[in-house]
Structure formats: C-alpha cells, structure tokens
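seq:
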Amino acid sequence: MYELIGKINILCLLMTPVLAGDPKPQRVDNFSLYDHKGAFHQLTYYADSKAIVLFVQGNGCPIVRKQLPALKKLQTAFEPKGVTFFMINSNMQDNRDSVATEASEFAISMPILVDETQLVGESLGLTRIAEALVIVRAAWKSCIAGLSTIAYPTKRSAARPRRPTWPMRLQHSSTGNP
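struct:
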C-alpha cells in the first residue's frame, strides 16, 4: 500500500507544482448529489474506495478543458488501484442540462456531480474551478489541492515543488492515509 502511495507522490511531483489551500487534512461529512446523467451518488456508498477525487468543473472554463487529458491519465492510472474519480460543479449559472452538454461536447466520461445550491462545495471548502479535493476513505479526511498548473508548468515548479501536490496527496491517499 505504501508503494502505491509513493508512486502517486512521484506522479504528482512531476505533474503539479503547488498545493492550493490548507494542506492540513479536514474531516468530510457525508453528502449526496445527482450527477449530470441523473445518477445518485452518496459519499458513503464509496466506502470500498481507498480515496475519492473531486475535481472542480465549470462549464466553459478553458483551464478545466486544458486539464482534461491530465485528469484522464490520473484516472486511468489510479482507478484500478481503488481510487474513485468525480468532477463537481457548484456554479450557480450551470445546471444539469448545461453540464451534460459540456460533458458530451468534451467527452468527459467521469460523473460530474451537480451542486446547484453550492451547499456541498461550500461545506468541502471548494473555492476555485480546476482544483481537486482528495478524500481519504479510511478517515473521511480531505485535502484541497490545485491542478491548474499541470498544463502551465514553470521552471521553478518543474525543478522542485515547494509543497505537496494533489497527485502526491492522491498517491499517499490511495494507501488509506490522509
């Protein structure tokens, strides 16, 4: 299990230079939302997952669209290892139909949880589009991390991140550690 975490940490280190928000794990309360296809999802239904990734999606956001290939690579690498991936849309101007249209147009296969009231996003501390929340199932704790720099690495970030990245957190989390 620690080996898997190490691999995710290396992957995150290579892909994302900075962690946004508070790096300290926060307790996550159970929540439930419908996705863009109308399927119901409740956090505790995924108790068999080692970790759950929520990537903040927004219709029309060029940063999110640019991150889709990198996110898909992470999903492909980590879903077989017990990590569940979702997107979450907490934008007031977006609704299930518009989110479904965006998902179809950009071939987004993972479920996009639609939080029209913003209550779940607010309770999770989500503040930016294109950030990711990694929830460790074992402790139901989470860390928010930025992803937007994956597509825009800098010399400084490519050389050595100053703080853990969300893929690093994912590597660590897939072993059941917050």
